[in-house]
Amino acid sequence: MSSKLQAVRGMHDILPDQTPLWRNVERILTAELEGSGFSEIRLPIVERTELFRRSIGEVTDIVEKEMYTFQDKSGESLTLRPEGTAGCVRACIEHGLLRAGQLRLWYLGPMFRHERPQKGRYRQFHQLGVEAYGMPGPDIDAELILLNRRWWRRLGVETELELQINSLGTLEERRAYRDDLVAYFTTYRDLLDPDSQRRLHTNPLRILDSKNPEMQGLIEGAPKLLDYLGEDSRAHFRRFTELLETAGVPYRVNPRLVRGLDYYCLTVFEWVTESLGAQGTVCAGGRYDTLVEQLGGRPTPAVGFALGMERLIALLEGSHLARREPPHFYLIRVGAEAERAGVRVAERLRERFPALRLQLHCGGGSFKSQFKKADRSGALYALIIGDEEAARGQVAVKPLRRPGEQQTLTWEELLRFVQSQRLLQGE
Ligand code: ATP
Ligand code: MG
Predict the structure, then answer these.
(1) What is the C-alpha to C-alpha distance for residues 427 and 425, in angstroms, rounded to an integer?
(2) Are 90 and 51 in contact (CB under 8 A)?
(3) Interval between CA 121 and ligand 2 midpoint (Å)
(4) pTM of this structure
């Protein structure tokens, strides 16, 4: 007996009843991006493993335990991308895109992390990533936040998301902080979980990012990075918060927000919701001024974020955006002549009205069974052609979800009818 074939654990099909919501959300998000001066870049899903080791950092959840890494036939170590920033920076350097000075990019696609699957946490998931290069000031940090807020407003989820912000300062500032942090956690060494003990000397900041509830009290009492920032970093953060206030964006400073990747500096932020349980971060990002140089490019300030599509979609469960647009017309045809006439009518209508949604019945069957399918399709009208109508060059129109009686029309009358129904307005 053969075993049932199933999708890989943590990797999900997005089924036809879910795709309208995905498409509508993607349309709203990307329209806002294009309207704000961001261009799309499409990147490979597979990159050299080296790229992620060098950018994300050796002592991070992702590189330590979450990457899908394999050797290809030539023996090269490759990895399914766990995030998009590294590949985006690689592409920008490789193609000299940063020579122009400033650049605003977005991308959308699947990411892969070998995590324990649970609600809001999958092994294949989708991110919409946004990256802005060549702008060192907090003005662009704030511009990204405002883009986020426009998204939440258009999608109707603004009240469900809280903006949390922090500053990670510079590398030097983090070094001084790191010593005090290590001293603090060393005092409570016995209370640290194994992950945190290991990180105490490799990457102590990451302890602050721990998801272990038993660690939270200890983390709460730790020294705060904001107290270690120098004047420039403070000024950047202050200006950032001023711009948020000017635009009326509420925020909360979360001193424990450190982000799970090594390349961040200065501004970091997360949009967090209470509605999704433990996996509450919907969108997260920050500034990464040293990464471009670290990967071999010219020093280029940068800031970006990634939106977790599955988590946003989960917030929109039951939204009107989940509605599939039904066809305007379902064309029923019974009989050999009617089958041919149906093809002609359908194609001429589709040609004439490119935005018209017309489903042509296929697969034969009686009038009765075809009507049933027409009804199930949600169409506004059935167009009906039997051999009689075919012989006379006519089409019957029966309202299914509009008022009115069935009427029999010539081709010219049908054209006028379609126009008069204003079905295509706004399309
Ligand atoms: P978390 O703290 O939840 O593990 P992260 O810090 O690893 O998140 P990022 O690398 O910053 O997440 O990714 C940005 C966003 O992508 C997250 O805020 C989340 O919305 C989404 N995301 C990350 N990992 C997953 C996953 N395994 N499944 C679904 N969405 C994810
Ligand atoms: Mg993670």
Answers:
(1) 5
(2) yes
(3) 8
(4) 0.93
List, chain by chain if needed, residues with CB within 6 Å of any ligand 1 atom.
Answer: 83, 113, 115, 120-122, 125, 127, 260, 279, 281-282, 284, 306, 308, 310-311
For 43-77, how does the pLDDT look when each residue is reduced to its tens digit (9 = 90+)? Answer: 999 999 999 999 998 878 899 899 999 999 999 99
Q: Which atom of ligand 1 is nearest to the CA of 311?
A: 20
pLDDT digits (tens, 9 = 90+) for 266-316: 999 999 999 888 889 999 999 999 999 999 999 999 999 999 999 999 999
Long-range pairs for 186-195 at CB < 8 Å and ≥24 separation?
Answer: 188/218, 191/215, 191/218, 192/218
Cα 31 to ligand 1 centre (Å): 23
- Residue 378's Cβ-side half-sphere holds a number of Cα atoms within 13 Å equal to 6
